[in-house]
Amino acid sequence: MTATQDTHTYENGEKIYVATDCIIFGFDDGILKLLVFERRVKPKQGELSLIGSFVSPNESVTEAAQRVLKEITGLENIFMEELKCYSDTSRDDGARCISIAQYALIRIGEYDKELVKKHGAHWFEVDKLPKLVYDHGDMVQDALERLKLKSRFYPIGIELLPKQFTIPQLQKLYEVIHQKELDPRNFRKKVLSLKLLIPLDKKDKSSSKKGAYLYKFDYKKYKKLEEKGFNFSIFK
Amino acid sequence: MTATQDTHTYENGEKIYVATDCIIFGFDDGILKLLVFERRVKPKQGELSLIGSFVSPNESVTEAAQRVLKEITGLENIFMEELKCYSDTSRDDGARCISIAQYALIRIGEYDKELVKKHGAHWFEVDKLPKLVYDHGDMVQDALERLKLKSRFYPIGIELLPKQFTIPQLQKLYEVIHQKELDPRNFRKKVLSLKLLIPLDKKDKSSSKKGAYLYKFDYKKYKKLEEKGFNFSIFK
DNA sequence: ACAAAAGTGTTCTGCATACACCCATGC
DNA sequence: GCATGGGTGTATGCAGAACACTTTTGT
């Protein structure tokens, strides 16, 4: 047993492999999807896994995750947050390895399709997800829970929508994340009352004949409000 | 750069020291306290740090934290939750080391005083906290934020109170955590309306002449409600 | 003309807020 | 008998929940 007093002396420490795995969510026309990756090499060749990497000695865990994300999707500066650390001794069948999982929310229209294809990654609907290797399935479940919780109080769902979006689109997103139907009148009222959507006087006609007004999210205003301790909740 | 496809092949992985640090909160008669530890050995001898340990190859991070907590306080089966991973390359001045911080909430009357003394640990009031080594100060700030957030929606504050407690005690706890005065009538009404406190027909006279009724928290009932997706919030 | 989705307004109810007084007891 | 903290009740307002109809336009 490593004696408590000895942290930061290193003598009693043994090194461990440290990895990060990314749970990459996308929202495609009413459906929540996950970017997973088909393993091309042994072990577990042909099986599905999250996209991950070892953390190298000259980068933080966050940097490692950002590197991975860029490598696969070409995207930078996107929403990504630490989920939790997976460290069961039995989680892996090789050497001892812990993984700090991160979940990312991307706009599904914006990633680099060539890169994704090149790496053998595919989008799967979250509710039709096949088995993933090791504890990656748990990671996805935990990430879904987190998304559900966090999106109630923080506008992170916005990161999954195109920069310009309609209110029905936003509603559908919340319905999918929370697996719950919402009343369109009350939803609209609540969302608009927050005064965080900027109307654009443009319509999106892709999903109806009448067309729905486009909005964009007022990041600046939200940031100011957040600093003042502002807090909202979409449902009770 | 570690290629993404190679996770779980280990060839490209380099090992890193993995530690865990515990942010141990206690609530002592209206004051929120933190258990910190005076370093007896070099480096940083005499400075204050959180209690931590390296994670050994045959234990999970959680197990390591539980081991540390037991070693220092004698306590087992207490509330502890992962906070986050601290992994900046510059966070330490020795070898590369990441730390997965965990915060724990203990009943300050129940720990083993001999053990704590033996290890050179002391309680400090959180708002009079001296400088801690490395990024431990950040960890404490982050833990306080988390405690604030989580205690609004989950009854984790209970873990800081004696098993039998009064409503004024509970209120004081919330006031300290949220740094906000609460109306005693409304607080009482809200708390009792949840029907999660079992009245004990006993009074605690330690803080008033009249004495205040003692209650205990109905863990079983809460667990059932939680499974059904029940959700409360102490404030708006 | 009609189907399909977008958009609008009102009522009701419950919960958070604000607020003032009596109670029990040790000193 | 008085100071100290504990305990109770009520009025108000706001925000969430429930709910039905009109608008636009492509076909």
From TrEMBL, chains A, B:
GO terms for molecular function: hydrolase activity. The keyword Hydrolase applies. Residues 18-141 form the Nudix hydrolase domain. InterPro entries: NUDIX_hydrolase-like_dom_sf, NUDIX_hydrolase_dom, WH-like_DNA-bd_sf, WH_DNA-bd_sf, WHD_NrtR. Keywords: Hydrolase. It holds the Pfam family WHD_NrtR. Residues 157-217 form the NrtR DNA-binding winged helix domain. This is NUDIX hydrolase. It comes from Aestuariibaculum suncheonense.
